[in-house]
Each structure stands twice: as structure tokens, then as C-alpha cells.
Amino acid sequence: MSAILNNGLQGIQAGLERISVNAHEIASGAGGDPTKLAGNLLDIKEAQIQTKASIAVVKAADEILGTLLDELA
Questions:
Q1: 61-72: per-residue pLDDT in tens?
Q2: Per-residue burial over 1-39, b = 16 or more CB atoms within 10 Å of its CB, e = otherwise
């Protein structure tokens, strides 16, 4: 169970890091290249989806753990 939670948390962290890196590149101007800007925006969207999926994994693991504890109690 802890491996599932750990994977979910790592996914959240990785997604947030990708968002931060791309946001920084956009804010710094990304060299004025529209193609690079579009790539950064797409990567932010992908990272957002990754983060949401990882959050769902953590929530599901939490619910399963809660159910297991309720059954054992």
C-alpha cells in the first residue's frame, strides 16, 4: 500500500516540477519563439493531467486503506 501512495506522491511532485519549469520558461520569454511557447503550454497541460491522475491514485489508496482499517476494527 505504501508503494502505491509513494508512486502517487512522486507523480504529483513530478507534475508540479514540470509545471514550474515550463512556467519559468514562459515567464522568461522563451526566446520569443512561438513554437517553444506552444511546446511549453502543451507540456504544462500534460503535467496538469499527470498531476490530477496522481492525485486520484493517492485518493484511491487512501480510501482503500480506510476501508481495510474499518474492516479490521
A1: 999 988 888 888
A2: eeeeeeebeebbeebeebbeebeebeeeebeeeeeebee
